[in-house]
Write a structure and sequence with these properties.
This protein has 103 residues and is α+β, with helices and mostly antiparallel strands. It has helices at 2-14, 64-79, 92-102; strands spanning 26-28, 32-34, 46-50, 83-87. The chain has three helices and four strands. The protein is globular, with a radius of gyration of 17 Å.
Length: 103
């Protein structure tokens, strides 16, 4: 298993980098945030987590909550190497309300 994992990793490293993004995507929330603004200075890697809490859902995905709690615990370590953003389709007020309910 380890050997196969290493072989796959080697093949992935040999692939060309991803294509250019044709436009600077805009995320809407309390204001507009451009995709390019999510990259912190000196970091060329961005991890985006899609928080499954859409307009129609009464509660967020039960698997997202513990995963995001775990990311919160290692965020300091992650931030040393890459930029991290969490996105959701819910309005900011709804996300904040859910956050306050969990405290």
């Amino acid at each position: 298993m380890r050997r196969l994992t290493e072989e796959i990793a080697k093949e992935r490293r040999s692939l060309p980098p991803g294509g250019k993004i044709p436009e600077d995507y805009i995320f809407l929330g309390d204001g507009e945030v451009r995709l390019s603004a999510l990259f912190e200075p000196g970091k060329n890697t961005l991890a985006i987590y899609s928080y499954m809490f859409g307009h129609e859902k009464k509660q967020p995905c039960p698997m997202c909550i513990p995963l995001l709690d775990g990311l919160n615990g290692v965020n300091d370590h992650l931030q040393k190497r890459l930029s991290v953003a969490v996105v959701a389709q819910s309005p900011p007020e709804r996300l904040r309300a859910f956050t306050y309910e969990r405290r």
